[in-house]
Records
---
Amino acid sequence: MKVISDAKILKDKIGKSISKYGNSAQHNLELFLNYGMKGEECIFLDAENQKGVMAYRKGGAWKIFTDPLCKEHEKIDIITKAIELILKEEEAKKIIMEDISEELRKKIVEFSKDRKFRVLKPSYSLFWPVIDLKDFSEEMPGKKWKTFRKVRNNFFRENEVVFKGVKEVDKKEIKDLFERWKRNRRDNDRVHFVQYLKFTDNSFEGLDLFRAMEVNGQIRSIYGGWKIPNSKSYYSFLGIHDYTIKDLGEVSYLDELAVAKKMGIELLDLGGIEKEHLGFKMKFHPSKMYRTDTFSIMSK
């Protein structure tokens, strides 16, 4: 396994790896490049044959980002090789493991029992609801969707709404929206603010879908995401509104479901959130849910 830090080589290798082995919501090159915090260097731990691990390095501090890029049965082998490389060759004392699937974390814990590192308990976990779009249609017929049908109809009757693409919206309007959104969010949500600004500056490169909602003459909401590689699934990465109009968030989500279904998407991943804040996303009738954990690994 090799440590790749050269930006040009790294982008090429990760891009090819994602194309071949990407399989989860966060397997997206632009997300990885924009996700790092200030001072963090993007690293690819190259396991050869277009497989590897995305990570960040800041001085002697390391962070592994999401599950490895490889076949499912190879994940534990590749991620433990990455862990041991960082602890031994890079002489790190601690590794933050961010958004690792629950199943893989359990395997790492088991693997660590006879190794020279220990796995700490998760510092937090996120829960990711997934909607089966076979059960959704834009008309939202029947009792199941009755409330949302009424919400959407009332919203469009009471407001003048125009949907716009990324090239039709000024970046300053989007950044102003982010500022208004930030004022209404919790501290742990605000950590994504800088990442959102990076995506804006890069014209949301890496997204397969982007829509802005102009309501009564002002941009009040944006949403967007990308197709999950090697699947018929989609990750709703970005969903921002300024809380100024009743049911704005609900209507934006409903439009995203409708547009994603027209794109041929079968499963829509609503993104990870803490368990105590699942209420809003659960209103959209997800068919399943999975969990990721963020935790630390320390040398013994």
---
Amino acid sequence: MRTDGPVVVALSREPGSEHVLAWGLSEATRLAAPVDLVEVVPEPRDTTLWAWTLTLPDVVDDTDTRAHLADVLTREQARHPDLTITAHTPHGNPAAALRDLSADARLLVVGAGHRPHRTGRVAAHVAAHARCPVAVVRPTTTRTPDGHPAPVVVGVDGSRAARHAATTAAAAAVARDAVLRVVHARPTVQAPYGLAYLPPASEDDPTRTAARALVDDLVAYHPDLRTDLHVVDDDPAHALVQLASDAQLLVVGSRGLGAFPGMLLGSVSHEAVRHAPCTVLVVHGTPDDHVPDEPLLR
């Protein structure tokens, strides 16, 4: 990841690609960052046909892809004269090509896929393996029914990755003039005979106190930030998806208490990427990647 790198927007011919483009350009404008429009051209593979090996030509005709991307580039340069926009068509496996591009990117923007409330394989792979933050974009409203900006939601669990995600989410909420909904979910304990039980968190419960302290830190750094804290007793992934039902953006850390050492994307973040009804921003890494995560919230 490079903090001075471009916002890489991955385009395709799938439904929703125009929304991905619009989201990426809008975010680049907020960040005052250059934009790199990318459409990956898959390379041919050796295939078999009735036990005979069929080798497809090594040369792929990408004329149509280049022409389409050139048209998009010309159109968007005219619409956004203050942005520096480039475009290119790398060849190869789409997921691998986008992962490689993420090394020098500030942000990678991909579409979630055309299936409602499900994420395509390329988006899921990139969300887990990219070397920069990844926005998995879904067509969602940015306004509430009464016309106010829809909230930004972030999940926190006390890990350093989640704190980094909360910092990113706070900046995103301020930039959008939106409320930041901070969610900490305490997983329920499975009791005998299948009954789930966990004493409700009181106002002076250490979990709520620590979560409130995190919110206070965010507000101290962003005095204009409006927050809404939710400490709930629920499966964390389920809680995030439910509380993001009216959100314009859900922010998650790449690893937290739902991950084990060596896991690239925690289980909670993975489920949020797959099932969230809105755009999900996966924040990779922490400000101090060499320092292990510490469970500060219980």
---
Amino acid sequence: MGKSELSVRQPIAFAILTKAFESKHLSHAYLFSGKRGSKQRDLAILFAQTLVCPNANPWACEECESCQRVLHGNYADMILIDGSDRTIKKEEILKIQDQFSKTALEGAGKKIYILDPAENATTEALNSLLKFLEEPSGNDTHAILISEQPERLLETIVSRCQNIPFTTSMKDLLEEKLAVMELDPFDERMLRQFVNDPEEIKEVSESDDYQSAVSLFGQFIDEYLAQTFAGELFFQSQVLRGKDPASNRKALAYFLRIGMLFFKDVKYNVDFKNEAWNRRKEAVSRRFDCVKVFMLFNESESKISGNANLGLLIDSILYQLKEVTV
């Protein structure tokens, strides 16, 4: 996504950074905070391009060799750590520190690193990051931390960054785009609560990860309502079926996120516009304390990004689930 569209989609963030570039008063660290799909990474890439673009005025031209290399991840002095489906390790932060403690490799002399999402860093990684933020390697190094849940970061890290808020899409525009996509009403309601971009909502709704999680969660509810032991066995045996840790973490995160939103909507008696899910809603509302289940799933999801043993985490969820039945 280019600067023209970003200036429309995120006018506040774009204006703040435009002023910084015009005045040449850039912070050494930024926190791009906002809902998923708010285009934080796109603006982070544009920010990096602008730092090294020979034609910047004040933003990057997006067309020169330097801009294109940044865009495609081939710029030696830019490091992007993608933790969207895995944890960010301490060793990765130490590698950034080691590389950026040396002279820049590129002619522009600017160095930038992007962590996305920063809250998926381990405690050890966050502590190493804090030390790096406290002792940046000169004025030529800039950090961008992208976060959907900044409350999960260390307060000392947040305090050392300039927060750039990313707002949600304009409601009318979002409604207009979603209307022509003809999504399943249940999927649309679920996804728009944690994805902010209409194109991404459609992409996620069609993904195997999301569809599998919705199907598994629905089956889990049916099994649990029919017989608690059967539901527990289903959760333990069906949600984590692969050997790849990253895939399992992603699968469990989707499962818990869908569950969290489902129980929230049950609490407020939302019409899912789907016979099967409305039937589950009626049964669940009589069986569970929905607020407590929501909190349980929310707390459990936050543990996935760490090094938690997923099997033990599921056992803990099931044990606590028994305590929130009514």
